[in-house]
Amino acid sequence: MKREWKAAPTGLSLGRKLNMWRRGFFAESHTIYDLAQNNPDDYLSDYQHFVGCSRINAWNEFYAHKMVLRSFLLAIGLRQANTVALILDRRILVYPYTGNASYVGPADMAELLRSGEGERKFIVKPEDGGCGEDIFLLMYRDGQFLRQRGRSVEPFDLMAFLGERKKSRRKGRPPSATLIEERLQQGPFWAELFPDSANTIRVFTMWHPGDPAPFVARAVQRIGTADTVPTDNWSGGGISVPIDPATGRLGLGRMHPLRGRRPEQRFERHPDSGARLTGAVVPGWGQIVATVLRAAGSLPFNRIGGWDVLVDASGTPIILEANGNSDVNLLQVHGGLLAEPRIRRFYQALEVVP
């Protein structure tokens, strides 16, 4: 129950919380899914998600490491962001996916990041991280390095960062690794939604036992705000917009009702950019779906996955990362997964729900 006490305050009575816990829901989920009005039986519970779904895939660790997933995606011919460096235990390996990979010192790494014309931008993130944790935008502008996270932009001591020993995110594990990659330029549709964050699509796939191929169970467009730069992290103040899997049309945007930092929580237009959300159609939706299903269908041990896709300036869908047990709150805020018969049958076949 440790997660429960770290959750945002909900204002629920103890009696109501106990009732939700007995049904497998955290108090926070009661508010996210508005279970006072909606039928809890239509929603995958937190217990079912964290316990039952964690056993669906044979090799969940495959998704936990970006380097492993990236190697697989490159091997099947899918484009990836340019990985500039992998930093592990204060050793810096540059261009790890090329024939020119080599170890360099901090001074050479800094010079590499400075080289080139104009402002340089890079994404720095944990190799084994998720949920937008510890990601920041690294910039080189006017002769100095800058770090941006949310609304804050401040000078950044790159040399000290490169010399730090990164602690493992898991107790008893080796030191954590860090990736530095070139920031992708997203397509015009996504840049217009909100230009200061990488606005990714979460495509949730399922592969029913006995079926010849996986299917798209649900998809949402995630959009950053001024509070989440450079990410589109929903639990940090971003927006989740449902996508019709058949047409690519966007629905009503929703902020996390407890963690969103705006008085309004539902959006037909973006609160910062003013871009239209509801009714807009995702360009190249068929190609996005085909790319994700190609990746999901290439994993014989994969049964379920949440795939994060960014469409670049050329219109190419790029899978940035995947989750073997994807968060479902940003999906179910738009309606319970179990209300859809095909999804319910999948969870029943895997013995997650009765």
Detailed description of the structure:
The chain is an alpha+beta fold. The radius of gyration is 21 Å and the shape is globular. The protein contains 12 helices and 15 strands. It has 2 domains: 62-76 and 187-324, D-amino Acid Aminotransferase, Chain A, domain 1, CATH 3.30.470; 83-182, no CATH class. The two termini are 23 Å apart. The longest helix is centred in the C-terminal third of the chain and has 13 residues, at 285-297.
Mean pLDDT comes to: 90
With helices defined by DSSP (H or I, 4 residues minimum), what is the helix count? 12
Helix content, binned percent = 10-25%
The span between the termini is 23 Å
Give the DSSP E fraction (strand runs of 2 or more residues).
Answer: 15-25%
What overall form do the CA principal axes indicate? Answer: globular
Supply the CATH architecture of the largest domain: 2-Layer Sandwich
Give the H and E element order: HHHHHHEEEHEEEEHEHEEEEEHEEHH
Structural class: alpha+beta
Q: CATH class of the largest domain, anyone?
A: Alpha Beta
Alpha-carbon Rg, integer? 21 Å
Give the total of domains.
2
Number of strands: 15
Biggest sheet: strands side by side, in what order? 3-2-1-8-4-5-6-7
Query: Can you tell me the CATH topology of the largest domain?
Result: D-amino Acid Aminotransferase, Chain A, domain 1
* Unreliable residue stretches: 1-6
Q: Report the biggest beta sheet as strand number plus sense, adding barrel if it closes.
A: 8 strands, antiparallel
